[in-house]
Design a protein that fits this description.
The structure is a homodimer. With about 325 residues, chain A is an alpha/beta fold. Helix content of chain A is about 30%, strand content about 25%. In chain A, helix 4 runs antiparallel to helix 5. The model of chain A has no long low-confidence stretch (mean pLDDT about 95).
Chain lengths: ~325, ~325
């Protein structure tokens, strides 16, 4: 295993310390239980947005804490749900009279622990469940997974909360953006979980995993490695079938790297995806290209499409100041 | 070779097209000869800052074109110098009465081609040479290489040019920042140049290359893979010996990923480097953590330290709006 670590046990703590030292103007790291909280004060009555999940997907979620996005994030151990005490502590520290909205990716452990935390809180608390991964059918027993679309939901709801939307409105908005969003990913290599010390799955040098999950879960199909053009055609076709954007529909196109794929390849993917939707008359009005929802050191990428309207564009464009996304301030 | 490409010949063009479509609000892509130019108008008399070099180091340099940083960047083929006609075209399009400053990393091909371009121009033109890599001795026959410190020079000189500094002042400032900057990197894996189709160098699963160059050049020493703490101690000690910052010296600490190293590891590296200089009483007043000067899909990282003063801090903090760095606007 070739990684910059001291021990697999201390990786998360060591990394969070570094994150805290690098971004002390944006966030505080709370130890015992661990959570990351924005330092910018919030207006009384603002809904507190809290997310979290297993670590290993950085910058998701800790890199999205700050003005205009999350109030706090609860990092679990690598690919392991955070515990309810983290969420309760984060909620108690962040709640400012507007209630708490949990943004939760659809994984059994995350869902269960956020539910327990919600029951323990004595303030109004709602949850938005993210399940944008179209690689699995809607009828899959565990439901669809939450993947890179999470960034889009957190940015848009974060802007609305900052602008004074109440808890009911934030929840409805988050669910609307989630429904308007579809993603699918592909892995060229497995990631290596430090505690395991070897790749999560084996894959031949000429193979790829189409529809992979962000923890290395099996996808739709193990396929022979093909050209970037064919790969994008497959990913985009699945998303297109799900969302069926009409001609002239404004959309946000997000090309997300899974951790070990360099930017030169991600922009090549963006070019191909742009052509796919351009040909169909879809208007790519906003985009995001880079490593935002990663899977440790996995080589791979995902495409995410979100159907936009004027309100969503306005909220996407609103100022944000986090470690990983920053504009307008 | 596991990459998202169509053909190795079309990789750069395909990727630049994607870059242009994604960031049309910031840059234009000029074809034949290729260069990337900022779209924000410049004030008459502003010095035109132009950089460039082989591709494969994204976001350097194309991701640094925009308000407050570069006026244009000339991307060569992968790890190959751009040609003088690119630099001449970029300079002619960008010159606005203040002359042209070339920011050139110290590689023989880049130096030669930027020199030829400078001779072909009929406007005032100066060059800043970047050679921040301390892995090689100062007496090395080709001189020291330019690596991740380039980002720091381009940001600081970019701010000064935007604020009206003239050509002489911009050149002097660039040389001052370069002298105040030292970097060293380490590779855990080789990169794979697409046209070659296999790793540039072989390295055993328990080895690393200390002092590696950003094209996979051999460094100081092939070593057994050690803990992140030991690795950072080695990198930071070399930088410390070069710059010898006194106690209370304000510095900028830049942890740069080489392409395939995830953020969770880069923040762990930052934590260790922060501790190294904290122990020595050095004041880490500014930082930058992420993948900025990459080496295709190489797993590895580099540390860069820049000695700051009030002027450099003010210029670092000045607004910038590029694809890869953005704040204050």
């Amino acid at each position: 295993m070739k990684k910059f670590i001291n021990t697999s046990e201390s990786l998360l703590d060591d990394s969070l310390h570094g994150f805290g030292q690098a971004h002390g103007d944006i966030i505080d790291i709370h130890p015992h239980p661990h959570f990351v909280q924005r330092v910018a004060p919030t207006k009384p009555g603002k809904v507190a947005l809290i997310s979290g999940g297993g670590s290993g997907h950085e910058p998701l979620h800790t890199g999205f804490v700050g003005f205009g996005m999350l109030d706090a994030a609860c990092p679990g151990q690598i690919f392991t749900s955070p515990t309810p005490d983290q969420m309760v502590a984060a909620a108690q520290e962040s709640e400012n009279g507007g209630g708490v909205l949990f943004i939760v990716k659809n994984y059994a452990g995350d869902v269960m622990n956020f539910e327990i935390a919600a029951e323990m809180l004595d303030c109004p608390c709602e949850t938005v469940l993210i399940n944008d991964d179209v690689s699995l059918p809607r009828t899959h027993s565990a439901g669809r997974r939450g993947v890179a679309g999470t960034t889009i939901v957190e940015k848009i709801v974060g802007a609305a909360a900052e602008q004074g939307a109440d808890l009911t409105a934030c929840k409805a908005l988050g669910e609307r953006v989630n429904r308007a969003t579809a993603s699918m990913g592909v892995a060229l290599t497995s990631c290596t979980v430090p505690a395991l010390g070897k790749p999560t799955f084996d894959m031949a040098p000429d193979e790829m995993e189409m529809g992979v999950g962000i923890h290395g879960e099996r996808g739709r199909e193990r396929m022979k490695l093909s050209s970037a053009a064919d790969i994008v055609e497959d990913l985009a076709t699945a998303i297109q079938a799900e969302l069926q954007p009409p001609a002239n529909q404004p959309v946000l196109l997000h090309v997300n790297g899974l951790g070990a794929t360099p930017l030169i390849e991600l922009y090549l993917i963006y070019n191909l995806a742009w052509q796919f939707w351009q040909k169909r008359g879809v208007r790519i009005d906003r985009c995001l290209v880079g490593n935002y929802t990663t899977s440790l050191d996995m080589a791979g990428c995902s495409l995410t499409l979100t159907l936009l309207d004027e309100e969503l564009i306005r909220l996407w464009d609103a100022p944000v100041h986090t470690a990983a996304l920053r504009w307008g301030c």
